[in-house]
Amino acid sequence: MKRMTAQDIHINSQIKFLKKKQQNVCFYCKKLLKKDCTKDHYIPLSNGGKNEIENIVLACQKCNCGKANSMPLMSIKDAWNTSLKSNDILRDWE
Ligand SMILES: [Zn+2]
Q: Which domains does the chain have, with CATH numbers?
């Protein structure tokens, strides 16, 4: 078994934080996140995105793979607003 490093613990707490923030659903398709969820750089590193929590979202395998290195259409701030709004709508429907 692999030993946890300080880096791993840091990543785990990031994922915990993001899961809570995203209400445990994929940032893009809103499907419930499973164990295979991946950390996605909202703005790809290859496009100048930062490797920081502000630029990281959790996505399911399908969305992360499908997105590849394409540039997002809106800023992460707008994307969060949209994301949170749609979660509110979902809640109203329940
Ligand atoms: Zn997804």
A: 6-93 (1.10.30)
